[in-house]
């Protein structure tokens, strides 16, 4: 239930934008960034990450209250929030890529590995300006580090499942990265009905990406 809360949709709607009709249609922070700018995107990013963190924390607490395994409870709670974000029942089982929500859960379950993953994302995005590539490689680093370091099977299962799902959800991005058509951070999309035909403001004919044609999304 917690993971299904579509903060990206609600924040965009408060500004008169249907985020599911803009860019990729994803509800995550990257699509919000392209449509509404940095302030709104950071707000959505923090809210989506909080869903994952609170999901893991509530699972940990519930397992303790019921006398179960704390690590398993955190993993179940984190994965539930992660899945709810990706396939929100409030949005007809659509959603985002799960990066922010998965990161929030990882922050509770695997904080050191999460730090490595965030560092990877920052470096890759800085060097390439591809958010999707940074998200994929950051998730992979979390999984590899979790497998190499001394953790219980529960935490390792979480890392592998979350990373696998993040990569799976990025299949279209991977295809565009391979053929050189993936969009880079900083490119904006125009809300439906804006009448904008210029992606970069130069009027050079490239065209602002219209609703439903999104690329380069991660969130």
Please outline the helices and strands.
Blueprint: H1 7-14, H2 29-36, H3 38-65, H4 70-86, H5 99-109, H6 111-128, H7 131-148, H8 153-169, H9 171-179
Summarize the structure.
The protein is mostly helical and 219 residues long. The protein has helices spanning 7-14, 29-36, 38-65, 70-86, 99-109, 111-128, 131-148, 153-169, 171-179.
Written overview of the protein:
The chain is an all-alpha fold. The chain has one domain. The chain is about 60% helix and about 0% strand. The longest helix has 28 residues, at about 40-65. The radius of gyration is 17 Å and the shape is globular. It starts with 6 loop residues before the first helix and ends in a 40-residue tail after the last helix.
């Amino acid at each position: 239930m917690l993971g299904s809360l579509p903060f990206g949709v609600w924040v965009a709607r408060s500004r008169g934008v249907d985020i599911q009709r803009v860019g990729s249609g994803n509800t995550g922070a990257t699509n919000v960034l392209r449509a509404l700018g940095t302030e709104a995107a950071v707000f959505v990013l923090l809210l989506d990450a909080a869903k994952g963190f609170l999901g893991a924390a509530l699972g940990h607490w519930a397992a303790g209250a019921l006398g179960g395994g704390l690590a398993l409870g955190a993993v179940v709670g984190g994965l539930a929030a992660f899945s709810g974000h990706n396939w929100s029942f409030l949005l007809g089982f659509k959603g985002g890529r799960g990066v922010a929500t998965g990161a929030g859960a990882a922050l509770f379950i695997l904080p050191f590995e999460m730090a490595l993953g965030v560092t990877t994302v920052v470096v890759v995005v800085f060097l390439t300006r591809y958010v999707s590539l940074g998200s994929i490689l950051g998730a992979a680093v979390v999984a590899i580090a979790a497998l190499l370091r001394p953790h219980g099977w529960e935490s390792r299962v979480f890392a592998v499942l979350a990373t696998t799902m993040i990569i799976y959800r990025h299949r279209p991005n991977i295809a565009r990265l391979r053929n050189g058509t993936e969009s880079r951070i900083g490119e904006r999309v125009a809300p439906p009905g804006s009448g904008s035909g210029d992606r970069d403001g130069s009027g050079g004919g490239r065209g602002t990406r219209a609703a439903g044609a999104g690329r380069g999304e991660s969130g």
